[in-house]
Amino acid sequence: MNTLIAVSGLGIFCLLAEIINLRKAIVPVSVVALLAILGLTVSEFNHPSSWYYNMIVVSNFSVAFSSLFIVLTVFLILMSGDYYKDKPSKFSDFIAIKIFLLAGAIAMVSFGNLSMFFIGIEILSIALYILAGSERLSLLSNEAGMKYFLLGSFASGFILFGICLVYGATGYFDVAEIYELSQGAGLPIWFYFGITMMLIGMLFKIAAAPFHFWAPDVYEGSPTLVTATMSTLAKVVAVATLYKLVTGLNKEMPYSFEIALLAVAILTMFVGNLLALRQENIKRMMAFSGISHAGFMLLALLSLTTAAGTLFYYTAAYALAGIAAFAVITAVTKNKETQNVADFNGLGKRHPILAAILTMSLLSMAGIPIFAGFFAKFSLFTQTIEAGYLIAVIVGVVNSIISIGYYFKLILAMYNKEADDEVASVSWVYTLVAVVAIALNIGMGIYPSCMMDLLK
Amino acid sequence: MENILNHIGIENYLFLSVILFCIGVFGVLYRRNAIIVFMSIEIMLNAVNLLFVAFSTYHQDAEGQVFVFFSMAVAAAEVAVGLAILVAIFRNIGSIDIANLKNLKG
Question: ipTM for the complex?
């Protein structure tokens, strides 16, 4: 709870700083403040509490994920400092919106009441609509904003209808009360309709097939840093919320739900990976890669009671690798019209450090050992086998192999092709963010148990 | 006052809301004019608000009505952002037909 209040206060500070002419201080102050808030959040670990009639419930799950979101936001804000340098008049707005986005994310993982869940999801979504359409004069950004807005609010409508039906069936918004009632028989059929509609809405938000079609367009059209926000922070938030929602509302999923989720996960992995193979635009490729990772994360929902630690590890590994990759992508494509794979030709000679980091983060996403991505996939697969879904694991392994195809396309372009333009200078901020993110990823890979056992 | 729900029945409110919600869904899926699409989204959200109020009376519980205020505020914020994006599009291409938004594909 304190985290949420502090983050909102920081967002308001960013807006005020513009008025009192402290624009230069915004990035350093918000980074330091976010690190302080991170300390505050971590100190709440193992001290579960609930606030305001169970509106906000602080548990180890919410603390762990909130800390991850804060770390990701710190990286994104560090990069914003350089990214928005040529738009000084809108600078504080961008930073403030990102911090409010974080507030929505924290509300989403620590809700104890469905109204808090809905408000959190809307705070996050509205902030992302603004960011996606934030390049006002670019037609592509406008289009991305519009598409995201239409499909996002469409999905919100489904979630709202789902909440309404659950309320109608049980008479409560409080998740704990609904959990109690869902044990007993005799609930009207609306209850299951409601849960299904909420699940469909959440699958829209995490871009799982067959509700994934908006993601590639939106990711391609948005400004690159916003794409980084969506594919790391927003995706991780949505998956964590889906997990919390499903575990919060029912003790054990009915078998039919599990089969449906299994089908969605398998379809998502295949759609993401197969379509990524033929993409030339790198943001589009990362979008499809993100879709396939959403499929992997959905596998965690098949073993609900034990999956929290694995899911946390997987999302952290994916998000840190994503931040490192997008730091490099943002730096390389900063002043270019296109963001094609060809723009990375010869990066290995021009910027050896950036190329090495991008290679490492792609290897982590593909699941090569040493990097955290490998152990994340490994424990996820082990758990899925224990839950009795061998078929999901076979599909997952096949998909990991397919994904190497397009990750290596980019790696080969960096090292084997000649550069066709001269060296552009890269701000040190991107290098710093990329190095720290990939170092954290490797650290997680070397000591997997220290994070995996957090949520036992 | 007698509870009017006893005469009408909660199911009828449910059917009405589902019909309104479906009208909204089909409006979003099939109309090309962005303003009409926005209106369809509003119909979806307001169908849910109607059902919230009906359920709130059914359960004799004020929470549902309070939730309606939240969802109205959220819907207003959402549409404000949507209209801002729409204005940006109109300034760039001079049209609000969403069929024109076809630059991103592959």
Answer: 0.95
